[in-house]
Amino acid sequence: MAATELVSALLLFLLICSSDISSGEKTRRPRQPCKRLVLYFHDILYNGKNAQNATSAIVASPAWGDKTTLAVPNRFGDVVVFDDPITVDNNFRSAPVGRAQGFYLYDKKEILTAWFGFSFVFNSTRLKGAINFAGADDIMKNTRDLSVVGGTGDFFMTRGIATLMTDAFEDDRYFRLRVDVKLYECY
Amino acid sequence: MAATELVSALLLFLLICSSDISSGEKTRRPRQPCKRLVLYFHDILYNGKNAQNATSAIVASPAWGDKTTLAVPNRFGDVVVFDDPITVDNNFRSAPVGRAQGFYLYDKKEILTAWFGFSFVFNSTRLKGAINFAGADDIMKNTRDLSVVGGTGDFFMTRGIATLMTDAFEDDRYFRLRVDVKLYECY
Amino acid sequence: MAATELVSALLLFLLICSSDISSGEKTRRPRQPCKRLVLYFHDILYNGKNAQNATSAIVASPAWGDKTTLAVPNRFGDVVVFDDPITVDNNFRSAPVGRAQGFYLYDKKEILTAWFGFSFVFNSTRLKGAINFAGADDIMKNTRDLSVVGGTGDFFMTRGIATLMTDAFEDDRYFRLRVDVKLYECY
Asked: For this UniProt entry, which residues form the secretion signal (chains A, B, C) (predicted)?
């Protein structure tokens, strides 16, 4: 097994190296974002009793799961739709500046990991438009990166990286994510 | 509450302003699309009785929903998979020029909003390839923008904005969207 | 019908042609990828009995489906969450170099087609980060292209095309995809 792993790792290493084509015009590394914003969003999962407060709900689950309890083990297969308030600080009671809308799903049996497809939607006098995100969330890591795959309105055609941190995680029912949005392509 | 809102708005405003880094090389604003196409797609939702005509079906719903009726309130939590005909005009009976394939989900309890992940798939002698879309659809607005996050074939590596208009909306069972696809990166 | 089709085709043709705006600065066609890697991933679907081996599970299905059997016809409406091993060759027993994580859904009644949203997640000493994919998979074709919509870590901000080939397809329970990842934007 160790030998197989070594061979695989070696093959991958060679494959990556050999594939790096030094092409000046297509390889570019921006040093700093052209725009950056740090925001928080708050997710309260529906558990069968909190319809008033809940901002998200399980809408799909594996054969062994249901829609008011997170699946065991590690929530694997649960799909959650959300409409979460976005705030500028970590206080759930701060006035929201927008909504985080879309879905996440838990996709690993052994540990907690998720996959996100969602948008930050802004609709105030100061800020209009949306930032669209997609990517894997390796929840157990301190920080992890998603892709900003596009934007509209004030974020027209943007791309970048969103660094997530779990700022709070309580009782299977509430979590708060800190999102450091670093945009490297601005129009 | 008003004070909290003001503070939040102010903080957000400062945050956005301070994050705008004037970097000539990364900030670019194209004036017009390099390619543009206006198309329509038609969605007939499965309701338990229209298997022949339906082009989409509810595949996931919240605890209080089911798969042949849209959830109350505002369809929140319903996930729909679709394979909808694309036409060049707003006539459902026009010959399709491609298929809109993917999913949408309804993600707000208070009003109708959706999140889309889908593709326009073309496979004719004149047009081959796909345009891939992602983003939030604020349905109650007259127009709203999604991101074109990529493309293949004749739309190799493209990016842009798709402006949606609800062209028809009938009986919870049929809607027609006008999609104005504006591509700002063409290869 | 033939006349309608002809008119639609003609309209689409004109529409595409007229929309091509010759803008030197925005039209660019890279000749070869700046990075390329060919990898395989392996999907074993949960069928009610293989909880140990399964790497994926049906989590949503249409009204006529269930979560341990693929829906008829053509799996339309089934949504599958997966955490599949990635290998550098087509041997399922090779040591994985990463995980393919996310979801696919089957979206056509007449033939097998799917829509994918997922990531290749790498976390070894040699390779860190993720490649994020989205797009339509026209399964019955020999090869088909998805979009690489972004990347993180070693694949920071990348974009490109992923060409899929079905390398094995067995018993409704196992498939193996060969993924030729061609990155045209590298940072």
From this structure: 1-24
- Provide the phi-psi class of C171: left if phi over 0, else alpha when psi is between -120 and 50, else beta: left
Provide, as residue numbers in chain A, all residues whose Cβ is less than 8 Å from the Cβ of B9.
95, 97, 124, 126
The single residue listed with the structure tokens 């004030």 is: A154
* pLDDT surpassing 80 at residue A20: no
Question: What tens digit of pLDDT does each residue of C142-178 get?
Answer: 999 999 999 999 999 999 999 999 999 997 899 999 9
Neighbouring subunits of B (3+ Cβ pairs under 8 A): A, C
Per-state percent for chain B, helix, strand, coil, to nearest 5: 10, 50, 40
The rounded distance, in Å, linking the Cα atoms of A57 and A66 is 11
Spatial distance between the Cα atoms of B74 and B187, rounded to a whole number of angstroms: 40
pLDDT in tens, B123-146: 999 999 999 999 999 999 999 999
The b/e string for C49-65 (b: 16+ C-beta within 10 A; e otherwise) is eeeeebbbbbbbbbbeb
From CA B78, how far away is CA B74, in angstroms rounded?
Answer: 9
Closest C-alpha among B74, B88, B94 to residue B140: B74
| pLDDT, tens digit (0-9, with 9 covering 90-100), for C75-94 | 999 999 999 999 999 999 99
Total-model pTM: 0.91
Counting DSSP H helices and E strands in chain C, the numbers are 1, 9
**Interface predicted TM-score (ipTM) of this complex, two decimals:** 0.89
Quick check: B33 pLDDT over 50? Answer: yes
Interface residue C23 vs chain B (CB under 8 A): yes
Nearest CA in chain A to B78: A59
State whether residue A76 sits within 8 Å of chain C by CB.
Answer: yes
Across the interface, do C30 and B99 touch by the CB < 8 Å criterion?
no
Select the residue of A9, A61, A184 nearest C59 (Cβ to Cβ). Answer: A61
pLDDT above 90 covers a percentage of chain A that reads 82
Nearest to residue A177, comparing CAs of A162, A167, A163, A187? A167
Q: Per the CB < 8 Å rule, is C136 touching B151?
A: no
Tell me the DSSP string of chain A: -HHHHHHHHHHHHHHHHHH----TTTB---SS-SEEEEEEEEEEB--SS-TTT-SEEEEE--TT--SSS--TTTTTT-EEEEEEEEESSS-TTSPPSEEEEEEEEE--SSS--EEEEEEEEEESSS-EEEEEEEEEE-TTSS-EEEEEEEEEETTTT-EEEEEEEEEEEETTTEEEEEEEEEEEEB-
CA C34 to centroid of chain Cα atoms? 21
Q: Which single residue is written with the structure tokens 């196409």?
A: B37
Beta partners for C128?
A: C123
Q: What is the dihedral of CA B163, B168, B171, B172, to 10 degrees?
A: -10
Going by C-alpha positions, the residue among C125, C126, C144 that lies closest to residue C136 is C144
E strand or H helix at B68 = none
